[in-house]
């Protein structure tokens, strides 16, 4: 059930907190955000390419990243800058993703600027795996953040679709691409390349998998 609760709003009228401060509020228990606050950030997910859950968007500021679940068809594109009120929203762990879930009917915030860029954090796969073992509210957990892995090779399937393995000199991580992604059917490239994407630990009641998700085919160079 991805329906929101009552309350919340789309406009940024309350005092701004950083995304790192928002994440720090999560201490392994879902909560309602009752203190008036707003957050701002640059959209780093690519809803058009569909390698992200429908209705969700990832934004990142100077401190961290977080997923916002609005539902519906996300109108934002990579590089949009948005700011919105999170008062009355919920902060929860959705299958390993720290997510702000907005109430049903929450309006999408206006785009303040477009074409903004976020510089990926250059990390080894071992560093990413260690980071994802930290609590979701920890500043060392890079879940959702835009990262870049250098000199890594992919193996597994003939195409991007599904679970592949990305390996550098330090270790391996699952390279996951949804079958719904527009580039899922493209040939998985060989050789040592640079990979940019967002990391998460996908969890269910029985499994936990550390993953790197590309946003589009241009994230491989």
Structural description of this entry:
- The protein is mainly beta.
- It has helices at 19-24, 125-132, and strands at 31-32, 38-43, 56-60, 65-69, 81-85, 90-94, 97-101, 111-113, 121-122, 146-155, 162-168, 171-177, 193-203, 208-213.
- Helix content is 6%, strand content 36%.
- A hairpin with a 4-residue loop joins strand 13 and strand 14.
- It is globular.
- The N and C termini lie far apart (37 Å).
Question: What topology does this entry show?
Answer:
Layout lengths: L18 H6 L6 E2 L5 E6 L12 E5 L4 E5 L11 E5 L4 E5 L2 E5 L9 E3 L7 E2 L2 H8 L13 E10 L6 E7 L2 E7 L15 E11 L4 E6 L8
Parallel strand pairs: 4-7, 9-10, 12-14
Antiparallel strand pairs: 1-6, 2-3, 2-5, 3-4, 5-8, 6-7, 10-11, 10-13, 11-12, 13-14
What's the short version?
Helix content is 6%, strand content 36%.
Quick tags:
2 helices; about 220 residues; 8-stranded mixed β-sheet; about 5% helix
């Amino acid at each position: 059930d991805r329906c929101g609760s009552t309350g919340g709003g789309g406009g940024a009228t309350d005092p701004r907190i950083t995304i790192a401060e928002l994440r720090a509020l999560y201490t392994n228990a879902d909560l309602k955000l009752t203190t008036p606050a707003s957050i701002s950030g640059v959209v780093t997910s690519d809803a058009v390419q569909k390698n992200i859950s429908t209705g969700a968007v990832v934004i990142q500021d100077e401190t961290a990243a977080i997923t916002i679940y609005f539902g519906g068809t996300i109108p934002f594109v990579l590089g949009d800058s948005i700011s919105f009120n999170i008062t009355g929203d919920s902060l929860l762990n959705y299958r390993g993703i720290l997510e702000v879930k907005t109430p049903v009917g929450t309006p999408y915030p206006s785009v303040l600027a477009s074409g903004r860029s976020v510089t990926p954090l250059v990390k080894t796969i071992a560093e990413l795996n260690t980071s994802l073992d930290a609590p979701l509210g920890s500043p060392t957990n890079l879940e959702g953040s835009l990262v870049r892995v250098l000199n890594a090779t992919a193996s597994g399937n003939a195409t991007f679709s599904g679970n592949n393995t990305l390996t550098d000199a330090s270790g391996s991580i699952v390279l996951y691409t949804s079958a719904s992604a527009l580039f899922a059917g493209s040939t998985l490239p060989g050789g040592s390349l640079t990979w940019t994407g967002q990391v998460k630990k996908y969890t269910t009641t029985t499994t936990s998998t550390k993953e790197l998700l590309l946003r589009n085919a241009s994230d491989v160079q």
